[in-house]
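Lab notebook, bench 4. Continuing the backlog of folding jobs that were queued last week. Each job is logged with the same field layout so the records can be merged later without manual cleanup. Today's entry covers Protein-L-isoaspartate O-methyltransferase, a 439-residue chain. Filled in by technician R.K.

JOB TYPE: sequence-to-structure
TARGET: Protein-L-isoaspartate O-methyltransferase
LENGTH: 439
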Amino acid sequence: MNQVPNSPVPPAAPSPDPLECTVLSDPTAPAAPLQPAQHSADTGEAVAARAAMVDRLEECGVLGPGPVREALLALPRQILMPQAYVRRSAPDETPPWWDLLDFSRPADRKELLERLHSGDSVSIQHDGEPILGRPPGPRRRGAITAMSSTMSLTADLLQQLDLRPGQRMLDVGTGAGVTAAAACFVCGDKGVVTLDIDPHVTAAARERLSALGYRPATVTGDGTAEWTDAAPYDRIFVSFAVRHVPQALVEQLTPAGRALMTLGTSSPSWPGLAVIERRRDGSVEAQLRAVEFGHRAGAGFDRLFLSAAFRAEIATADGWTQRSMIAPPPDTARGMWLALDRLYPGLVRDFGAEDLTIGAPECGSWMRVRPVGRRRWDVTTSGPRDIWAEIQDVTGRWRAAGEPDVFRLQFDADGSQRATSPNGALTWQLSPGETGDAR
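JOB STATUS: finished
OUTPUT FIELD FOLLOWS
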């Protein structure tokens, strides 16, 4: 449902997945996608906007030919999201305020269609309000409490799910129902269960999916626990970040089933994608992939962020400066950054800064690295933590491990979970704390 805003650069197209699975639960299932019902609100402008959105996703390399592309072309987003919030206040302005746009109002229609098809995340709920029957207009204070993820993230993960007709899918974190609608389009709606902890989100999704002619099981509940009514599932998709893989979901996978979810920490900066496969013999194999984008954490996380005042301090304040001939790790060293977040938690990167800028908001430590010539960098640090030393420690350990971007996920008999490099040289325990809510 939510995306970590790490960078404006879209993720690269996924590489071929060595974990292949092509099971059909029902061999009598329809071979053709279940087309959405025609709707009077699906205007020519909306059809053209969807086509342009799909073209952009293809040009960026995050979408290729196949059923996901066909679903994104066919599914009218303005039926799933006939209302959406647009923030009118500046990012650091307080109190914040938004406008709720409504497709039924001609004055809102153009801006709403642009928002729905921009590729950005779409805000659909403010302060946990009921979604159906609400009046459009301004909202002040409070916070956005439900979103539809950016299309680059959604398209990428839907393709990695490898949906097939007749499969049973559990969609944990309904949001606007985009993932559930795509699953209904590809798999047929009889085997799809979409689940959200918020009854207002569930009620809105049920009504809007029905308007498209889809009637999946739309359920209110905690998806990190279990939903056994339609289990086992061929595909499980979690649209919010969890600290570790919920064992209940692993147990609900069919042989040759696959689950995808973001594994995160309180920091939004360096997510990992967990890919869990249950083999045909019943054994489980899992990977943790360092990725550029991931879903936001659910409500069980103590979220860390860099305030405007802290960002300004890092950019301008004096600290202890050392001249270094060691280059800072590049953004593409995703496995190193993933390991840093796990081995030295509490760090947040300011991706909007011109230079490498990282802060630890809980203790006030910070670091900035600025190039000052050929193979020379000024490293300025402040506070009780030496973040540059932490980075150098993890970089050395990551290189000794072979510079991996993919780690094995191991599920131990005592219930603990570990991420380990392929050669075993770099490992860390996944937090057994709260997994977040079931949005």
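OBSERVATION: Confidence is low (pLDDT under 50) at residues 1-31, 433-439.
SIGNED: R.K.
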